[in-house]
Amino acid sequence: MSILVVGSLAFDDIETPFGNSPDTLGGSSTYIALSTSYFSDDVRLVGVVGSDFGDEHFQLLKTKGIDTNGIQVIDNGKTFRWAGRYHYDMNTRDTLDTQLNVFADFDPHIPQQYRDARFICLGNIDPELQLKVLDQIENPELVILDTMNFWIEGKPEELKETLKRVDIFILNDSEARLLSGDPNLVKSARLIRAMGPKILIIKKGEHGALLFTDNGIFAAPAFPLESIYDPTGAGDTFAGGFLGHLARAEEINDSELRKAVLYGSAMASFCVEKFGTEKLANLDLLEIEDRYQSFLDLSRIEA
């Protein structure tokens, strides 16, 4: 099943209590595409980079079967850069520097050969750009969207227009409260689903994730890890694993959605074990299935 991923590609300078990782490959679409690539052999990536985005980075994406022909390279430009420092609990971070560079003028053009993609995943870019992408897609079967506090606060009306055309919306608990204006996550979910997306996932970091559908609520645990080095990109990695499972499922129903949440959680748990995309670049399918089984075992009770 063809998958189109649109979002940012970036270089990150990451500081955590457990080490530093400068010039790390990052960006929302990078994490999403790498995560999804373990489930699908037809992942198409659209984004923009500068001439400093080296061949080794393109090669990494290509070795995972990701189609990079949709990535615009701006000569003499610089790739989007972000620098951040995480606190000891790894749940809060300080942004030290943001340089949009070529991403500031990102105008997503979807190549003709990408426009028949069945599954669309829109990373947390400007909602006006997300709408522009959807206007170029012929007849998508499923649209998944991510966002962030910056867009909820800065472009709330544009985001709400985009949500009318979305099937699945993924955001974290603080973003859900901000968008809904209500502190209760169950009520927040009802209010947000009324904006358009009938399927909603609220991520809660180390406390797991909640799936809301017409048929009820599913709560997935977080995987208990002894070592967490870097939570950057974990949410995007979750989205990639979630999307990847749905794309390979024979049909999308509540059972497959719940499985997809666990696969997304499994992929996110791998992501935080190394800095940046290092762990995502070196997984195999057996590891992923073993971690998925571990998630099942976490809440299983024998009769």
In terms of topology, how is this protein built?
Layout: E1 3-6, E2 10-16, E3 19-26, H1 28-36, E4 43-50, H2 55-63, E5 66-74, E6 80-86, E7 93-99, E8 119-122, H3 127-136, E9 142-146, H4 149-154, H5 156-163, E10 168-172, H6 173-180, H7 185-193, E11 199-203, E12 209-213, E13 216-220, H8 234-248, H9 254-271, H10 285-298
Parallel strand pairs: 1-4, 1-8, 2-6, 4-5, 8-9, 9-10, 10-11
Antiparallel strand pairs: 2-3, 6-7, 11-12, 12-13
Helix pairs in contact: 1-8, 3-5, 6-7, 8-9, 9-10
Provide the CATH top-level class. Answer: Alpha Beta
Average pLDDT for all residues: 95
- Tally of contiguous helical segments: 10
Q: How would the global form be characterised?
A: globular
CATH superfamily: Ribokinase
Amino- and carboxy-terminal Cα gap: 38 Å
| Residue windows where pLDDT falls under 50 for at least 5 positions | none
